[in-house]
């Protein structure tokens, strides 16, 4: 795929903004990949096509406006995610800042091969494994892995219901999930990202509003009442938590310990070699696990 020709000033390309700013101005969750815009903001601008890509999950995300990219999904090709998206990529980690890359057509192409999964940086594989095991949208994959380990084949609908009802899938944790992906028992889906446009008016609004934006004051949590046992009990020191960007497809993320430290997050996939293959409709509920 070639670069999409974008005729605008470089200052728009170089505008980096926070998720808090975008959420405050246009609405939507500050963690979800596809945040739905609330009723308070949507009538103001009519935009409900936002998509956010973090390199913790998507090392082949578009690197500059108009550039092609690849989006990874834990499902085997859920066409619910196809369509034109208003794409932001995270371009800075600390503080986390994002750049508007353009309007992208998202299409399911194929599954990630075992070799491609294995070639990804350990930090990316670990992030996916942790998030799949810690999020409701990863339940489906864990159910299938449990069934493959127990029955040696994919589960029937009745078996799926039993495994889910009895929460047997909870025995599938990060090591078991990593092994299943390494062996090819489960495959991640690849979606091509082709830039098909650039909303210059929107980009100008982002740059102009960001230049004068002041973050709202943080809400005060108030003073904690003294606990009479505090002076008698040595409380363990809590480890500092940081946010890891969610790929929960519209679900808010939870706090996760920061285990993203490697600079080598390149995925060995040539975007131009991924060809879109039409598939039949195979939808699933947005929040299905």
TrEMBL record:
A matching Pfam family: DUF6697
Domain DUF6697 positions: 17-208
Coiled-coil spans in chain: none
Start-end of Acidic residues biased regions: 253-264
InterPro entries xref list: DUF6697
Disordered: annotated span: 213-265
Amino acid composition bias (Basic and acidic residues), ranges on this chain: 225-236
Protein name per Swiss-Prot or TrEMBL: DUF6697 domain-containing protein
Source organism per UniProt: Coprinellus micaceus (Glistening ink-cap mushroom)
Taxonomic path: Eukaryota, Fungi, Dikarya, Basidiomycota, Agaricomycotina
């Amino acid at each position: 795929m070639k670069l999409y020709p974008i005729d605008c000033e470089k200052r728009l390309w170089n505008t980096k903004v926070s998720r808090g700013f975008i959420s405050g101005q246009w609405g939507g969750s500050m963690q979800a990949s596809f945040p739905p815009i609330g009723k308070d903001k949507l009538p103001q601008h009519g935009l409900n096509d936002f998509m956010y890509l973090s390199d913790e999950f998507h090392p082949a995300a578009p690197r500059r406006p108009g550039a092609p990219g690849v989006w990874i999904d834990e499902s085997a090709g859920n066409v619910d995610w196809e369509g034109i998206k208003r794409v932001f990529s995270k371009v800075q980690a600390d503080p986390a800042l994002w750049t508007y890359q353009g309007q992208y057509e998202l299409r399911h192409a194929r599954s990630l091969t075992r070799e491609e999964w294995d070639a990804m940086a350990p930090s990316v594989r670990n992030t996916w494994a942790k998030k799949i095991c810690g999020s409701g949208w990863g339940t489906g994959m864990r159910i299938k892995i449990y069934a493959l380990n127990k029955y040696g084949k994919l589960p029937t609908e009745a078996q799926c219901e039993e495994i889910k009802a009895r929460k047997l899938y909870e025995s599938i944790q990060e090591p078991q999930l990593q092994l299943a992906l390494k062996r090819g028992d489960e495959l991640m889906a690849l979606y091509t990202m082709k830039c098909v446009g650039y909303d210059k008016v929107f980009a100008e609004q982002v740059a102009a509003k960001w230049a004068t934006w002041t973050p709202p004051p943080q809400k005060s949590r108030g003073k904690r009442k003294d606990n009479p046992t505090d002076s008698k009990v040595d409380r363990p020191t809590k480890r500092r938590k940081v946010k890891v960007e969610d790929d929960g497809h519209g679900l808010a993320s939870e706090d996760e310990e920061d285990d993203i430290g490697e600079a080598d997050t390149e995925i060995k996939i040539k975007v131009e070699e991924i060809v879109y293959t039409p598939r039949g409709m195979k939808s699933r509920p947005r929040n299905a696990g």
